[in-house]
Amino acid sequence: MKRLWIFAGSLAFTLSGTAAWSSGNAEAGATKSAVCQACHGPNGNSVNPQWPSLAGMGAGYIVLQLENFKSGKRKNAIMMPMASGLSPEDMADVAAYFEAQTNTGGESDPAYRDAGEKLYRGGDRSRAIPACMACHEPSGRGNAPAKFPALRGQHSEYVVQQLGDFASGTRPPGTGDIMGTVAKRLSADDMRDVASYVQGMH
Fold first, then answer.
1. Is the pLDDT confidence value at 62 over 70?
2. Cβ(51)–Cβ(40) under 8 Å?
3. Do residues 93 and 28 make contact, with C-beta atoms less than 8 angstroms apart?
4. Residue 56, Cα to own-chain centre: how many angstroms?
């Protein structure tokens, strides 16, 4: 149990030193992303809590998810056909555009914020749950070189859904399946609390 705790933090540190992902053309991406903004909101700030905000998300992470949708590795009835027609250049440009935008964020529910902050920043050693910030950074900006997504300002409803998908195996594993392992150890209350906390991060 102790090894897993240390491993998660070590992995974040190790991968943060890898070569940065090569960005696309944000100006071209502004035009290409017009259809994306119908769901993900103006400048990537989604107004639908079931759809993620992409503003400020690392470009490498966005490209990876688009590739997963296009290949069918990650399944979603809306995103799979949207990604199928994108070339690598299109993906890079769209990703560069969204990365350059500012996430306007939301607010945390005061009833869950403190418990969520405790889990995000300190984890729970008794259950071998590492601190979320070990990979997603203390301010929630993520780890771009490692393709760990930014979480700050993300809709809590969407975060809870993704944690549930990782736990059930519905969403494909990431690096070393860290999220699948961690999500399985989170209770429904844990997911709600940490999701509420990250929604209010600015």
1. yes
2. yes
3. yes
4. 11
**181 C-beta neighbours (distance < 10 Å), count:** 18
CATH 1.10.760.10 in the chain, residues? Answer: 2-18+105-199, 26-99
The half-sphere exposure of 98 on its side-chain side, counting CA atoms within 13 A, is: 30
pLDDT of residue 22: 56
Provide mean pLDDT across the span 63-87: 96
CA distance 44 to 154: 11
Q: What architecture is domain 2-18+105-199?
A: Orthogonal Bundle (1.10)
Fold annotation for 26-99: Cytochrome Bc1 Complex; Chain D, domain 2 (1.10.760)
The whole-angstrom separation of Cα 197 and Cα 67 is 29
